From TrEMBL:
Record PROSITE patterns: 4FE4S_FER_1, 4FE4S_FER_2
Occurrences of domain 4Fe-4S ferredoxin-type (ranges): 1-29, 31-64
Organism: Chitinimonas taiwanensis DSM 18899
Keywords: 4Fe-4S, Electron transport, Iron, Iron-sulfur, Metal-binding, Repeat, Transport
Keyword Cell cycle attributed: no
Protein name: 4Fe-4S dicluster domain-containing protein
NCBIfam families given in the database record: di_4Fe-4S_YfhL (NF033683)
Length: 83
């Protein structure tokens, strides 16, 4: 699954620089995660880095973006191939 940022986000700016896939950006009101770029840090780290640094715990799994670890790894490989 990709991650998502809920409206509990306080725009503290700590998650965006932690994302190795550059999936996090400032939205109209709060930060947003591009599900096409989010691999939950699979391929980079053991844990999603944005979740690790979020002070308000507002980055859960997106129930609308169900992906297996294998699918996340495939997405990671595509992303790094484009870099």
């Amino acid at each position: 699954m990709a991650l998502m940022i809920t409206d509990e986000c306080i725009n503290c700016d700590v998650c965006e620089p932690e994302c190795p896939n550059h999936a996090i950006s400032q939205g109209a009101e709060i930060y947003e995660i591009d599900p096409n770029l989010c691999t939950e840090c699979v391929g980079h780290f053991d844990e999603p880095q944005c979740q690790q640094v979020c002070p308000v715990d507002c980055i859960p799994l997106d129930p609308d973006m169900r992906e297996t670890r294998e699918q996340l790894m495939d997405k990671y490989k595509i992303i790094i191939a484009k870099a």
